[in-house]
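Standup notes
- HV: blocked on the assembly model, inputs below
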Amino acid sequence: MTVVIGFEGSANKIGIGIIRDGVVLSNPRRTYITPPGQGFLPSETARHHRAVILTVLQEALEQAALTPADIDCVAYTKGPGMGAPLVTVALVARTVAQLWGRPLVGVNHCIGHVEMGRLITRAHNPTVLYVSGGNTQVIAYSERRYRIFGETIDIAVGNCLDRFARVIKISNDPSPGYNIEQMAKRGRQYVELPYTVKGMDVSFSGILSYIEEAANKMLASAQCTAEDLCFSLQETLFSMLVEITERAMAHCGSQEVLIVGGVGCNLRLQEMMGVMCEERGAKLFATDERFCIDNGAMIAQAGWEMFRSGQTTALPDSWITQRSEFTSAGLLLSGSTS
Amino acid sequence: MEPEESMAVSDFLIKGNLLKQGAEARVYRDTFLGKSTIIKERFPKKYRHPLLDEKLTHRRTVQEVRSIQRCRKAGIPTPVVHFVDYTSHCIFLEDIVDSVTVRDHIVSTQQRPHPGPTLEHLAPLAAKVGQIIAKMHDEDVVHGDLTTSNMLLRTSGYVVGDAAELSLVLIDFGLSYISALPEDKGVDLYVLEKAFLSTHPNTEALFQKLLKSYAASSKKSSAVIKKLDEVRLRGRKRSMVG
Amino acid sequence: MHTSHQLELYPKQTVTQLLFKGVKNSAELRKSAMEGKINAALINPKMIVDSFQVLVAANKAVHLQSIGKMKTRGLYSEIIFNLSPANNISEAFKRFGISDSDDSVLVVLVATDDESQVLADITEKVDGQQVPVAELPTLTDVMQIRKLYKVTPQEEKIGSLLDSVVCRMATKDVV
């Protein structure tokens, strides 16, 4: 039996999860919520994480009914993400690893999402759509590497949704994306927005600048409602995502789709992806908000895979990085099975 | 406004010989006006809003037809359009007989044993691809979906490695558009680069050949290559801070 | 002598082409066609590269008729309009219809049933010598076609003149 604790804090969530051989023992989490119209800044987010991280750690151990002596390995998010929050969380992970005398393993955030999705859904060899506030990628696993087939060439889909929410002052509680999804259900009128797919890549900056410019004017002149805008934005963004996922599937001959990342809990996105899969005779796998949204268990799970294959991170190498080391050339994750 | 359905074309395609079902189109081969013809049918995608679907499908059919004609006029080989049905979104195209996709050609060349490195055998092809894209970009046609699957290599009379006899045909212009901006052309090359390297592992040197040939062939290449470098960097530096 | 082609998309419709040389009554024929006494398209064969070009125009005309989207008043005028690279109807008739001084004519018919009687009627009306449609290329005015369709020299390097002509005809609605 191998027990791994995972620390995640690359954006505005701080989560710590404990996994024992594929079983999630605990996975508490806190979210830094900003007022409507405001995004989260690195230093303030780091301050939030610092204030709650020890409480969350205590919860993780208590809910799992374990003591530090039961932990075999400490995993933490190495990146990509926001610098200050990553540093804060890595510092705590390094400290407990030394206090408890356990090995440390640095985990790529994206791979955490993918590995957790595979664990929960039992998807075998899926084409993965990874969609969150900071990432939009279509990933497939081939020749022992995760390879990016499609991605955004500018901003992430979650970022586009968040910034739209700020433009029309939608609440950030529990998250802007969740509130847009609820409002979209009441949207009736489809408003035409720019649609940009380039090969297997997408671009969202054109839609964002269009809607930033037009939204308040359209609302003021009662051309459409805020609900209509939420609806139209979702329909447009998600159509683009489903389209590039389907293109990647056709390219790789894949018959499974796994959606991960915070935007992946959106039920309309899951529904659209499901229709596409049905038409192709493919299978869709998706998880709910417990595992789609950034959490500690996903880092523990990827860490578990790495630890079991003999990979650990020495203390001098336990740095963090804001950027992705994850390119179309692929990121090696040995020990991963597929 | 509901477009009038052309039953004739759909009845015809039901009996047709389906070659492949891609992400957005079904491709058939059949006899049309007495000739072997490729029929590309953009079928409705049920996952997207009907208004968006109709708009996209129509736009892509038009863009494909338009860019084909613009390319041919400039001497860039693309299949001849024989007929377009804008109600069922079908394009009837010349069948490029005796051809393989560049993708299949590269894969089979890499698998076949050769004297000397494989790269040398494929270098003339890479150079030719660079040249033809340069020519297309000089006409301000941005393809939008450059992959090695969207280029055909005529096989009649062609011997691997012989540059003079290389004859390429560009296809699948559904995502194409007209633009003079180096940014758009740079992204076009970026899309190709990623598709090329992910489809054909260990071909970085070959792709460099392609880019070099592009740079040498296009009158406006320096601004485009600069943008390509910028777009690559953007991918790595992407920040998650809103 | 004549060629007939059953349209694949509209199997009930057959396109028949008849070629005449040494025609002496072009003016009369043109007048009869305008008055609706001849139910056929009378085409200037100098502007035709190959009978395939006519099939492309006829297929498109039948298609547009079936969906109610013709640009001209009748099927035969639509065929003549479809041959033209431009969207001007009277210009299309001037270039692709016959004129009074022409001594050759390509007659195009679209028939749904037995056509032998119709063919006999047409042959009766033309004062000229019917020749095989395969002789079309001997009448083609290549220079005039290049000019009218604005075919570029680099374009002819990648395909035939017929390719260039057909592609323009098929794409003219959106180019």
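- HV (later): unblocked. Residues 21 and 129 of chain C are 5 Å apart (CA to CA). The domain at 3-171 of chain C is CATH 3.30.2380.10 (PF0523-like).
- Next: hand off to the docking folks.
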